[in-house]
Write a structure and sequence with these properties.
Layout lengths: L1 E2 L4 H12 L3 E6 L2 H13 L5 E6 L5 H15 L4 E4 L14 H28 L6 E5 L14 H23 L5 E7 L6 H5 L4 H9 L6 H13 L8 E4 L7
Parallel strand pairs: 1-2, 2-3, 4-5, 5-6, 6-7
Helix pairs in contact: 1-2, 1-8, 3-4, 4-5
The structure holds NADP nicotinamide-adenine-dinucleotide phosphate (NAP).
Length: 246
Amino acid sequence: MVTGASVGIGAAVARALVQQGLKVVGCARTVGNIEELAAECKSAGYPGTLIPYRCDLSNEEDILAMFSAIRSQHSGVDICINNAGLGRPDSLLSGSTSGWKEMLNVNVLALSICTREAYQSMKERNVDDGHIININSMSGHRVVPQSVTHFYSATKYAVTALTEGLRQELREAQTHIRATCISPGFVETQFAFRLHDKDPEKAAATYEHIKCLQPEDVTEAVIYVLSTPPHVQIGDIQMRPTEQVT
Ligand SMILES: NC(=O)c1ccc[n+]([C@@H]2O[C@H](COP(=O)([O-])OP(=O)(O)OC[C@H]3O[C@@H](n4cnc5c(N)ncnc54)[C@H](OP(=O)(O)O)[C@@H]3O)[C@@H](O)[C@H]2O)c1
């Protein structure tokens, strides 16, 4: 399962996994984009399949309904890629509570709910080689002096803690299920356009000032993590554009 598979990193990851022969449930609100991607994968002759699922991850009922549909139609989740995420330009001194809640709901709570449900799905089917990959950010490792990123950064620090906490709980449970996060710097996607939705020029400038990572660069990290032998647990991959300063 890949969350946020409608655009950006999630769409690229879903495509790459289908190309590798996996059956992928891709979810997001804009399910039409995922349907188009599924058709694209099919006509390209990729060996896997992409199954689009409409889900608003800020709504727990939607998430639980999706896991229940995956259970009844596809038996369960073996690999959970928590990719969906967003930034809102709400600073700590004057930002709106609704922007903070949206970031918390998707970046932290949905990721945690999907992780719990994916683990339970693996456990009930005795899947001992599953993988949970969280798409974190360099913002989960240092705070840059830009007020619009401060609350977002707090949600990504949470992802750093959640990934390591998950690794520890998986060890306590004596499973071989692995937990990894991937922490990119600037990746050219819709992210900045959604963050600065009232200022598209500012958003475009984000991706023009340096040569950014492409979604496919992050995808390669995901494929690498999934390709490692069972005794190798990758905790975090930090990857920035070479020209990025922060
Ligand atoms: N781009 C960067 O520079 C960058 C850097 C570091 C980390 N990241 C992280 O990478 C991940 C992917 O971001 P991206 O750059 O690919 O951004 P993006 O192009 O804006 O894509 C975000 C994805 O998240 C989904 N999403 C957002 N809110 C959702 C909701 N309530 N329910 C379901 N899906 C939701 C969107 O789908 P719908 O809108 O269709 O629902 C979309 O598929 C995020 O976790 C982000 O924090 C990005």
